[in-house]
Amino acid sequence: MNFANLTVAEIARRLEMASVRPDCMHSADFSIPPGMLQGDTSPAAVLMPLVMIEDAWNLLYIRRTEDNSAHSGQVAFPGGRMEPVDRSPYEAALREAEEEIGLAPADVKVLGRLHEFLTISNYCVTPIVGVMPWPYPLRTQPQEVKRCFTIPLSWLADPTNRREEQRVLPHPYSPISVIFFQPYNGEILWGASARFTLTLLEILK
Fold it and tell me: Of 17, 20, 90, 168, which is the most buried if we count CB atoms within 10 A?
């Protein structure tokens, strides 16, 4: 699909038209085994930054540092757990993006949001979609972010560039299906961030 024809206003309109589920749900292709998640779910938010590069829409991703945390070394969107100072997922996503990659909130045009996603790490994540200028003087937080990179929407939308694999879980839980994209510029997008990406693509298509 040629996403380049989508204007900022049209992207915002399609996000507004998309159904937003008020409860935190996992998508139909990802079923968390009953009883696996223990304790309260933590609210979180991520920013899905759209950038226009050579007349083509791209998404900006980060790769997290290898710090032995739950998401160590993974490809992701800027974001994290909501803090008491955050009055909404929008504020949380913009705050985290500024802390992690130096993206000033004033430089982001927020277009809308996706529905909430329940992750296997027991976060209820709200993805916020926004447009940022490009090129941009990004400043990564070295303790959290290894690098930033972009992937064209047209490449992400090509079904030949992704596959599903079974992720083995600890006994007694059955394996679950996980989305993996093919390597792009040496990076592999998979898991929750891949689910966010495919949901946005479906809305924009």
Answer: 90
Q: Write the CA distances from 176 to 30, 70, 96, integer angstroms.
A: 7, 18, 29
Residue 77 to residue 60: CA distance in whole angstroms: 7
Closest residue by Cα to residue 181 from 197, 166, 169: 197
> Burial, 196: exposed, middle or buried (Cβ in 10 Å; 0-12, 13-18, 19+)?
buried
Query: Structure pTM?
Result: 0.92
Which pLDDT does position 27 carry in this prediction? 47
Query: Alpha-carbon distance 194 to 186, whole Å?
Result: 16
Cα angle 15-139-7, degrees, rounded to a multiple of 5? 25
Mean pLDDT across the chain? 91
The string of pLDDT tens digits covering residues 27-59 is 434 567 767 777 888 999 999 999 999 999 999
Report which residue type is found at 158: D
Handedness of CA 145, 194, 149, 56 (dihedral sign): negative
Tokens at residue 145, please?
């972010």
Domains and CATH numbers, the chain: 3-204 (3.90.79.10)
Least reliable range by pLDDT among 74-83, 104-113, 163-172, 184-193: 163-172
| Alpha-carbon torsion angle 27, 89, 46, 139, nearest 10 | 180
| H or E element, residue 100 | helix 89-101
